[in-house]
Amino acid sequence: MKAIDKHSKIIVAATKVFAKKGFFNARISDIAKEAKVADGTIYLYFNNKIDILVSVFDKEIGALVTQTVKLLDAEPDPGKQLEIFVIKHLTAMKKNKNLAEVIQIELRQTNKLIKDYRNTKFNDYLNIVSDIIKEGQKQKIFRQDIIPDIAKRIIFGGLDELSRVWNLSLETNYSVEDAGFQIVRIFLSGIAASETEGKFPPL
Amino acid sequence: MKAIDKHSKIIVAATKVFAKKGFFNARISDIAKEAKVADGTIYLYFNNKIDILVSVFDKEIGALVTQTVKLLDAEPDPGKQLEIFVIKHLTAMKKNKNLAEVIQIELRQTNKLIKDYRNTKFNDYLNIVSDIIKEGQKQKIFRQDIIPDIAKRIIFGGLDELSRVWNLSLETNYSVEDAGFQIVRIFLSGIAASETEGKFPPL
Amino acid sequence: MKAIDKHSKIIVAATKVFAKKGFFNARISDIAKEAKVADGTIYLYFNNKIDILVSVFDKEIGALVTQTVKLLDAEPDPGKQLEIFVIKHLTAMKKNKNLAEVIQIELRQTNKLIKDYRNTKFNDYLNIVSDIIKEGQKQKIFRQDIIPDIAKRIIFGGLDELSRVWNLSLETNYSVEDAGFQIVRIFLSGIAASETEGKFPPL
Amino acid sequence: MKAIDKHSKIIVAATKVFAKKGFFNARISDIAKEAKVADGTIYLYFNNKIDILVSVFDKEIGALVTQTVKLLDAEPDPGKQLEIFVIKHLTAMKKNKNLAEVIQIELRQTNKLIKDYRNTKFNDYLNIVSDIIKEGQKQKIFRQDIIPDIAKRIIFGGLDELSRVWNLSLETNYSVEDAGFQIVRIFLSGIAASETEGKFPPL
DNA sequence: AATGAATGAGCATTCATTCAT
DNA sequence: TATGAATGAATGCTCATTCAT
Q1: Which nucleotide is nearest to B7 (CA to C1')?
Q2: pTM over 0.85
Q3: D88: which of A133, B32, B186, D52 is 20 to 30 A away, CA to CA?
Q4: Residue A39 approaches strand F within 7 Å at CB
Q5: Integer Cα distance of B15 and B13 in angstroms
Q6: C201 vs B75, higher pLDDT
Q7: Are C53 and C65 in contact (CB under 8 A)?
Q8: Euclidean distance between CA atoms C58 and C61, whole angstroms
């Protein structure tokens, strides 16, 4: 087995274990067992426990970025692109509960621990949204008074909270379609009824 | 010193310590030291470490619910109410970074551990949003196709992510006013420019 | 309530608690609760936890000594006296499981801790047996080659082990009568069949 | 060093420490220090503190069973066998004070905690005695009215109490020979003088 | 005498990391 | 490269004892 395979195997195993037990409750030996390697072997590929988490996250989110970008390339309309992003995100989170866990929980937990977090692929992912918005503004399809860097956070936050609730089974499991519609509806057209649109003019 | 004072003192201390170190890295002795009581004293008021976290959270969020409800009582218009909620939340999170930490990080971390979490005051807080939306729908001010229980998550998620970024100082610190405007703008009227409104009709 | 009553109440409570949980697992607060006094009150009557145990033991064994001596006074024959002692002991241990526990377990456990243990009433109790043996030897009813101070230990040990097993329910619960007969039989006439008596002559 | 050596080393160390301080007062770190291993190493070989005690006991008593059985194999006469058992037990207890401690004190202390204690080697040891008695009864050398399962307890109890007193140095240290004679005397022929034998007939 | 809140020393157990093989 | 036995620092919680009231 090549070194790269083992590195990969450990990441896959770690993703499962972190998702199941959480970063702090996961033991290195759990990961080693899941990956079918010895405890010590892990330290040949990673510096420490946090390093594993960062790697897990980067790998997963990297794949998501690639897939999402590919989907968007085929669609010129920023509105449609936003819709695609939303559906893709919700679908991915529903399909890959482990990744969802890691994003929603461990990501936050360890932000405090990882100073150079800004460099990870997560920002690439978020910037997909701000880029869509910027393009929409250029095309005069989106309002000019929206600040893309704020909007990307608001949109991601909404998506994230929604899929978090799914994962915890705290509420009825709305379908990706229902939830996707709601979020696209809200972000693109807002909550206001069209006849009252005048009440919320662009400031 | 009355028992209630000591209970309160421990909660205040725990809030500080959890915010600074995170739940898992916080030691009971840290909290005891911060509260100027003996380690054992903490166990006269709380059952265990998680119990402290839940109490911290309930106290803080309970206060926030009270204040927010009071603010909203004076305002009949659901659109304005949503705006008030948004501004109040962002202001509170910016003012009380410890509470923000606890909501954004520890809350998630321990959701898995606390099964009966549904009963805490956090749901009261979220339901303020869905109640506003329901009232708006009744008054035909808000779209009928918005599902309040989904929308409340989307809105909270957006707010939460925004204030999380503030806390981490990951991005330029937009003012509460700027961020509040963005979020009210997006949720109430959506991102779409009014001339393109037709592109995103109610489905 | 007089002081002596409270002292007594605590001893009764402690006997129950020690028997149920064992000395090391018993908490002062358990005893206080059982005795319906405050934790601190216990320290008005006893110096520390071990002091309570010694008091419990002395009180119980003292009562047993009194009762046993009274029973024996009416019986002049040392052989019958030994029988009475045996039956009385087994009956007492079966009736008062708490005392049995304390004798069998805690007594041993704390012997190491209590240096002046020799002074307690337990020796009075054991000496009842050696006194019976000495009297029997004086009357030429018992063998002269038996050393009373060793025999008292052997007899007590046999009785103690037997009632210990009862308490633990490790084996079929033989009746006091059966067990008493066995022990009297063994100690007085030995195990040997009478026709083989010659095989085990006085050495 | 092989794993089995370390396991053994820990048991030897634990025996010393338990004997010196007692089970409840012994700290894991004491045992680790005595065994010259790290605290954590102990948990590679034992599940918990009680597991160590049970192991200590099983190892020691197992060795004693082996040795005793071997000694008895060479002797066909049940009367002599009982004498051999008695002498062997007293000798072993006098030689190995740590084992004596563990049998007499810790064993009792933890019987309450270990429900499946019945399965340990201690029963093998006790059953040596009842087997001897049964064989003696078969050969008509011992009385038929003796119940082997009760007699084994009485005999063990007598032996145990005797060696317990030695260990505590509560009384003059009689020699193994003196004490052995007394106990064999009592158990085989009883206390009664031969001329009064008629006073204690088989019931 | 009585209370019971407060104290703080004490300890079993875990687990990330190392390193001899 | 790979192993997994060994390490030992770290900590939540308990409970005998004290003492202000």
Answers
A1: E5
A2: no
A3: D52
A4: yes
A5: 5
A6: B75
A7: no
A8: 5
